[in-house]
Amino acid sequence: xxxxxxxxxxxxxxFYKFVHLPATAEVASALREVTAPLLGxxxxxxxxxxxxxxxxxxxxxxxxxxxxTDPRFGGHFGGxxxxxxxxxxxxxxxxxxxxKAEIVxxxxxxxxxxxxxxxxxxxxxxxxxxxxxxxLLIDNRNSFEYxxxxxxxxxxxxxxxxRDFPEYVLANIDTWKAKGKKVAMYCTGGIRCEKTSAWMLxxxxxxxQLEGGILNYFEKMPDAERDWQGECFxxxxxxxxxxHLQETPTTLDDVYGSDSEDDAxxxxxxxxxxxxx
Length: 277
Hints:
By secondary structure, this protein is of the alpha/beta class. The chain folds into two domains: 11-99, 2-Layer Sandwich (Alpha-Beta Plaits); 119-274, Oxidized Rhodanese, domain 1 (3-Layer(aba) Sandwich). It is built from nine helices and 13 strands. The chain has helices at 24-34, 57-69, 123-129, 143-148, 165-178, 191-202, 213-220, 252-255, 261-274, and strands spanning 11-18, 39-45, 48-55, 82-86, 95-99, 119-121, 135-139, 149-151, 182-186, 207-210, 228-230, 232-233, 240-241. The strands form four sheets. A five-stranded mixed β-sheet has the order 4-1-3-2-5, with helices on one face. Helix 6 links the parallel strand 9 (182-186) and strand 10. Mean pLDDT is 92; it is low at 1-7.
């Protein structure tokens, strides 16, 4: 199949849904067909779908319609939430659809985020929640993302990979329970918090999570800079967005600027992916 060109790339859509998919190969095959005019990446697993796409508004709208109505998708993706932001830089160079074991790799078997997750909090209520004294606000992202920007008073778990987050939780959850803390978490688009909160429910801990993640907060709150410090890292060639969902001048060197081995590896990998090395 021919790859789409960068012509007409004006918008970026991010989306995910935890849903039980029995036939991932068939879903992936159909996705490759309906994404032909687009650029981006989609992961498909038995636990659901996770994707980022770029293209014209018309092409992205046609994709949304196909997911909701094409019988090959069995109605699994109806009602899925999309987060759209404008592009100056083309976020992706090609279109990829992959079958994976997980759509977001926490590495713990048996988590069913399609069945239950934490308590979703709207952006408007989130602003009130994070000011409550008994709330522990945790950034459920990697340390390099936190360094670039974070909600005020948020705790950095200092993890280098999402798979490291459970170790941080297990080391602290008994203390949180003993102190009667409300745990509130946020991430870029919401998917990491949904996966983690489903697991934490099984540990007897209820978590409050920002509905739609940081990007939804920026979209719904025109004065998001009251609560957000810095920028938001995004996993594509735009690198970072401000609180108005606009690209910033931030570079890969700005993001991975420390002397750690992990940052050096991430910088090398990012340059290979964007073709700058």
